[in-house]
Prior knowledge:
Layout: H1 10-18, E1 22-24, E2 26-28, E3 32-34, E4 41-43, E5 49-57, E6 60-67, E7 75-78, E8 90-93, E9 99-102, E10 108-111, E11 121-124, E12 130-133, E13 139-142, E14 150-151, E15 156-158, E16 162-167, E17 175-182, E18 188-193, E19 200-206, E20 215-218, E21 224-227, E22 233-238, E23 249-255, E24 261-267, E25 282-288, H2 292-295, E26 310-313, E27 319-322, E28 327-329, E29 339-341, E30 355-361, E31 363-364, E32 369-373, H3 378-386, E33 393-397, E34 400-404, E35 412-413, E36 420-426, H4 430-485, E37 487-488, E38 495-496, H5 499-505, E39 512-515, E40 519-528, E41 531-540, H6 546-558, E42 569-575, E43 578-584, H7 591-595, H8 603-623, E44 627-629, E45 638-640, E46 646-648, E47 655-657, H9 688-703, H10 720-729, H11 741-744, H12 747-760, H13 771-778, H14 793-798
Parallel strand pairs: 1-4, 38-42
Antiparallel strand pairs: 2-11, 3-8, 4-5, 5-6, 6-7, 8-9, 9-10, 11-12, 12-13, 14-23, 15-20, 16-17, 17-18, 18-19, 20-21, 21-22, 23-24, 24-25, 26-27, 28-29, 30-36, 31-35, 32-34, 33-34, 33-36, 37-38, 39-40, 40-41, 41-43, 42-43, 44-47, 45-46
Protein name: Receptor-like serine/threonine-protein kinase
Catalytic activity: L-threonyl-[protein] + ATP = O-phospho-L-threonyl-[protein] + ADP + H(+); L-seryl-[protein] + ATP = O-phospho-L-seryl-[protein] + ADP + H(+)
GO molecular function, one term: protein serine/threonine kinase activity
Amino acid sequence: MAVMIPHYLYFLVILPLLVTAQTQGNFTLGSSLTAGHDSSSWVSPSGDFAFGFQQIEAGGFLLAIWFNKIQEKTVVWSANGGQLAQSGSRIELTADGRFVLNDPSGQQMWIANLAGTGLAYAAMLDSGNLVLATNTSTILWQSFDWPTDTLLPTQQLLSQGDNLFARDSETNYSGGRYQLAMQADGNLVLYTINLPQSSVNYAYWASNTVGSGYQLVFNQSGMVYLIAKNGTILDQIFPGETSTSTDAIYQRAILEYDGVFRQYIYPKPSSSSVKRWPMAWSVMYPILPENICTTLTEEYGSGVCGFNSYCQIGEDQRPKCLCPNGYTWVDPNNEMNGCMPTFVAQTCDEKSGDFDLIQVVNLNWPNSDYEHYSEVPEDWCREDCLSDCFCAVAIFNSGDCWKKKIPLTNGRFDSSVGGKALIKVRTNNSTLQQLNGEVKKRDQTTLILIESVSLGSLVLFNILLLVAFIIVFRQNKRKNRATSQYQVLPGTNTRSFNYNELEKATDSFNEKVGQGAFATVFKGTLDYENTSVVVAVKKMHDMVNDSEKEFQVEISAIARTNHRNLVQLIGFCNDGQHRLLVYEFMCNGSLSDILFADQRPSWFTRMHIAVGTARGLHYLHEECSTQIIHCDIKPQNVLLDDSFTARICDFGLAKRLKINQTRTTTGIRGTKGYIAPEWFRSMPITVKVDVYSYGILLLELICCRKCLELEAEDDNQMVLADWAYDCYKEGKLDLLLQNDDAAKSDIKRVERLVMIAIWCIQEDPSLRPSMKKVLQMLEGCIQVSVPPDPSSYISSIQSL
């Protein structure tokens, strides 16, 4: 009987995982990781992914990338699946610019194949991509270009020989029996592999897009689809998750060891589920192929489940490998390696009376025939197999009789198979009895061992239970103290503070870190649940007229939002005449602080910020329960956390819309230079005003200059939007980049980003794309068409 373990005991299970050292940021030459029980890892800025050594077996370590915030630590990429590393092996960014894995004796086990020289650092990204780059952020190597068995959102397979290779088994990461190939001819194909060679053997599924297919795309929204070179979608493999925000789930698509290509989702840990044991990975449907048991029928080879076995699809849509009566596993540890008879085979001088036929309906082994008879009765088919020493199985179906010999191949059990299998077994077999006796002996030995272990486990369990009780008791005391200190806004995790608490937290509002039209922001420190948290306290000015309305809007708009590209509201104060908002503190300030400084952020960092800002706006526009128009997107309202991830702030000017409401017609809001033309035309205000502002912001990120520079030496360069379009139209985009060598070396991307920005700043709001489409264009999921002239009207408006 299964034993249900209380959820609080899982703390004791994951405790050893929490003591492993983890580091974040860029890893420079000389950085290394060593395999061992206390292996450290390189963690992405959000902590979602980690790179390092995972112990797979005693003394065997896999150099891998995995999901880091969930219990399973699911591997998404590995370097040395075919040869596990011993304890003491080391992966190192060497001083001479190599990324190499050596065993404890210094012998090379694996090395990254760099596309160029000048390696300066490695970075583990929030996308799950490990990159090796130069000082100018030019990528020399990335794990996304060398996939193993898994694809992650934003990852692609190009028709240049990119493949996914299934592993050998669930726990063996060496090359397995299946491959997903994006072929140079444009066809996406699932193949069996002819082990121990690595050559393809049999195609059991194909997209049939020869001459037109170009790229398999896994976009941020969870869709997996095949596109042509012009961006046309040819085949949608997986539709993606539509009922849940993609920001609330992890996703992966994997060619599994059973030959099936599946997409999985997993709920991200959140503040509401910290004390709840997380769910498991959930498979999405459809899967490819839908039924591999009946799809895979190769001319040579054993099929899905190995020789002499058969395949059956379970309720979970996974193939189950089974042995027919009279057969047992060749390798009990790997049921996909087939079955062998438990009896001595029939010799040609033996009487048929020593054998019998066991009947199983809807079971067959195609491609194992050596004889076929038509229009015969079933009794005749039975007797003919019993008297034939070569016959191991007879298949009878509507007057047809097929005789099959060992090894049996491509076995499948399914209602679509029809007919019946007549399996020959020995009726009186000393060998079988001997085998059964050995099995019973092993079972008795195992039973004694299990009882011994169970007794010891019971004692350990009671000790763990006592420890867990003490831990939970202390946590509840802390929680009760915290709850009594700070009230929580119903339905949210937002706390209510009184004015004295925030005055104390900010040292009487001593350290000012920002100021706007309606508020001043101070840095402070709050103590709760035995933890000190640095916060930004936004103190609203005298609450009269519109200002008080702004406060009410900001509270209701932000309290129920939750996205990694938005600044999180921790709490608020509504104490008498005092109105304050408490946010998490962003240590790298605002985008404007670094974008227009003498030392500009790297090209890679700017693109990271551009995508993050787009994701935040997409969430506000389309994924909130209440749609939000920000109305004041600009560099000052894009804050940067410790990993320079974009976090949109200041919803004080936001317009909240019901889910079925698309526009509002209030007075002009926003900041000069970023205001959409419709504000000046008494036109309806929609989410497209944010798209316009984002387009201006994107141009600023590309060029590292302000949208309006009245002191520019050349009058044609005063308005960035006009100048950028002129440079694009004349093919002189390098003029926008000044001395930015990294951006110049990525000029194709620069051109695409400028085109996206021009689409965003179209005078006609209906021509502007949605933020969802902007995000898809940024991620390369859809092509960017040639934009029209955004109109000279922009220049006259912005100079007012």
